[in-house]
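Q: Entry one of two.
A:
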Amino acid sequence: METPKAPFSEISECPEFQKDFKKLLKKFHSLKDDLETFTSTALKAFHKLGQENLGIFQIPNLGFETPTLYKATKFACKSLKGRGAASGLRIVYAYYTDTDKILFIEIYFKADQENEDRERIKRVLNI
């Protein structure tokens, strides 16, 4: 899946994210468009414009400083009508401030999984 590059210098997805995404796409058909909207609006506002949206949090206590890891808890999904940003979908990503790069690491539905997979994060980032 190709994610739009603007407003960041690079946006990529780890293979595990792509696998999660494909699985969720079967259930939530609007997910591709929803991710593009999230990237161009919420991520841009948070990282480029410094706007706090109370839906993106830095993940603490991972044992490393760079890159900075975030979890988005407000992710609007059109396939989940009537739930708005409280869709229950979560996205974990790394933001490299020095290169202005986003790396999507994990996407999951809160009803299926309670928290981010910290072992996956460390494995993907080779830490």
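Q: Entry two of two.
A:
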Amino acid sequence: MQLNIITPDTTIYSGEVSLVQLPGIDGLFEILPKHAFLIAALGKGKIKVEIDGKNEFFEINGGVIEVLNDKISVLAE
């Protein structure tokens, strides 16, 4: 899957991932390959990204996610 995490100032991450865990408004949720179309609001917390079997974390203060055709776009604060 292709993931882009973008803030108003910069692109935090852009690349291939195998799993993304996000802080939704009502709790954590995960995106895996072949996920259905989704648009959701994000709360404050950490985005967990699995890259080649290793986890990386990105702190956000909220935002919006769009998932479409194995492309994930996160517009974060």
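A: Comment on entry two: The beta strands are 2-6, 11-16, 19-24, 27-31, 38-51, 54-68, 71-76. The chain has a mean pLDDT of 96.
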